[in-house]
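Human: We require from you a protein record containing the residue sequence and its fold in token form, and nothing else.

Assistant:
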Amino acid sequence: MLVTFSCPAYADVTMFGDVAVRLLQLMGHSGTVPSALLAEDVPAALARLEAEIEAEKQSPDAQSPGNEEDDEPSVSLPHRALPLIELLKAAAKEECDVMWSGNS
């Protein structure tokens, strides 16, 4: 499943469902897809996500190289969160709601 985040102030952001749900939970949301954040809730969700991502960066697991057998480099959760963080910043600045929905 893919999850697409959207708001009028920023381009849509699409990510894999497991990553999106994890980021939603880090924001303090249940992880339900589809759903939305009201404009007045966006700044708090953004602050919580940024704090959780910073904590993730400091954890020893975030700095391990991952599975040595894979040819593909692993992409860390903090790196995957960047587009969503930018969308939330734009939504907070423009005071608009953020919505997300799943695509198969």
